[in-house]
Amino acid sequence: MRLLTKALLIAAIICAQHLVIAQNDKGRLTGDFYATSQYYQANEALGATLLPGGERVGVNTALNLNYDWKNLTAGLRYEAYLPPLLGFERRLDGHGIGNVFLSYRLKSFELTVGNFYEQFGSGLSLRSYYEPQLGLDNSLFGARLKYYSDAVNLTLLTGKNRSYFDKDDSNILALNADVSINSLFKNINENLIVDIGASIVRKTEDNTTGIPDISESSDIISLRGDVQLSGFLFGLEYARKGEEPHTLNQFTDKNGRGFFLSTGYSTKGFGVNVYWKFIENMFFRSDRESSSNITSGINYLPPNSNINTYRLTTLYPYATQGNGENGVNVDVFYNIKKGTALGGKYGTKLASDFSIIKGLKTDGPPEDPARFLSFSDSTYYANWNLEITKRVNKKLRYVAGWSYIKYNRDVIEGIPRSGFVNSLTFFTDITFRLPKRRFIRTELQHLSTKQHLGNWAFGLVEYGWSSNLSTYISDEWNYDSSVHYYSLGLNYRKGPTSVGISYVRERSGLICVGGVCRFVPASNGFRLQVNTSF
Amino acid sequence: MLLTKPLNFNRILLLFSLLLCTQIASAQDIVKASEGVQLKTLQGKSVSFSELAKADKGIKIISFWATWCKPCIQELEYLNDIYDELQDDMNVTVYAVSIDDSRSAKRVRPFTNGKNWAFEILLDENSLLKRKLNVLNVPHTFIVDENNEIVYQHTSYVPGDEEKYLEIIEGLNK
User: ipTM exceeding 0.95?
Assistant: First the structure.
């Protein structure tokens, strides 16, 4: 009882202080917390193993705190991987402060010291970001000064890339400018919007490889512009990287190039966009000897492919080939108006994406510099999706579609002579609302292919007991080998908090976010997930 | 070094009390919470979210979403179906903040036009506002009253959640 009294007393004091602080506007504490833990069981038929070292329980967790006071913001993130879940890099094992910063704003200026996230343009020259699903955090640790105005935004920064609970040795120094031409020249037609930007990023790293004559500093220069006229849009970014030999480009002394074009037209009810991306030797690394694709990236090379989300359409995902790829992607969106025969009462939404990514063409051997914007004969990846979304009435809504994928395993998985996988997936997703905020949702999917593991089927049923509680059961079935990967779980949500408990059997595969992929081995066991913010 | 020490009962109680305490003190002003964050409009213009919120004297629904997030799209489609009512009768503006990164940010404009969404669409390409408001996953939705206080927030989406939003908004309009 004494313990309880003591704890409550301390809490009450802190609470009271907190409330007084809030009232006097002296500051505000906010934060978030997540934890995912899994209990693993080995299962030979599924190919499921325990954690490396034979451990059965893995936990990934982080507590993030931010404190705002007047123009100051301070933040801290405490992370623990005890040990990391299956498929995350073992080097994360342990716990500690993963992120800490202090930021001060004064009029148009902002100064940050500590860990910070930044992106220039599309990230081709620099992007530091946090993606806990991948175990990726390449925040820069150093100092950053920003200047904002209507016409010009400037950023000057210096720092080192985070690498697990440590930092890479190299130094990064960068400058970025974004200029709004409309704000500079007020007499431009208001339908015409023009923005331009430029950045320069320099990395300096001691040569510890033993290979002579490796330059200790490398630069990327990037130029970009966006023009919009009524519904039309045209954007271009070009980046040039100096010589930068490292493990991922097999220590080549070639220069790097990146070209990214995006153009389209859209109006209410219709949109089309075309993207073209050419990259050659564009991995920009903060540790030239690291071979990890999760850490040590300075820039970001998003793949020019569709983002597939239905379970079986994620079986063959694309991973960006930063040493060279050339791809085109077309998106079309159309809304069939409501009140028409096909549109029904709420309208019918159609979406189609097409993408094809090939290698680079050279005049000589493959290691020669490529011909700018030329495609080789080798296809790395092709994908065509068609999707219909329709709300039939107040109760029934469905999504239906297909996805064709051609996947080059030699290139994407790096397994020589493994060939192509051609797959066609059909999917449906039906939601039916029941009285008292209950609902039932089903997904049915089928993937057919003659290659690799053969055909798959997937089914899911989710039932919502109330707006807070739902339960699901699913099965992913590789029926050529008769292996079932089933899962069942319970999810509880209230306000900003969600808790999920499940039993999962998961196939092995790549988990990719933004073209950065990690391989996750098959697993079998119980999972508990908690997310909250305050 | 918290985890290297064994957790005793006292400490658990204290942590629990602190958690309760943060719940009590959780009323937040969206204008202050989003200070210093620049977002982009679909026209490519940089805007301060804080200024935008300050200028809007009505009720706001702020929904974090992405073009690849199925429940987000489902939520926004339902909100779009009732958006006339929300705007005209309930004084509500919906801010749909896309966290699509540079891979898919250019998709947002044709996507939202193709879906005929009438919301204020904003781009948070490197998740600055998302982190500032402690959003872990999308969809995550905030309801903000006329005084810019966050009165409700909700993570994930299941069919029927928008009915809850309507109840809260009706309460604010009374």
Answer: no
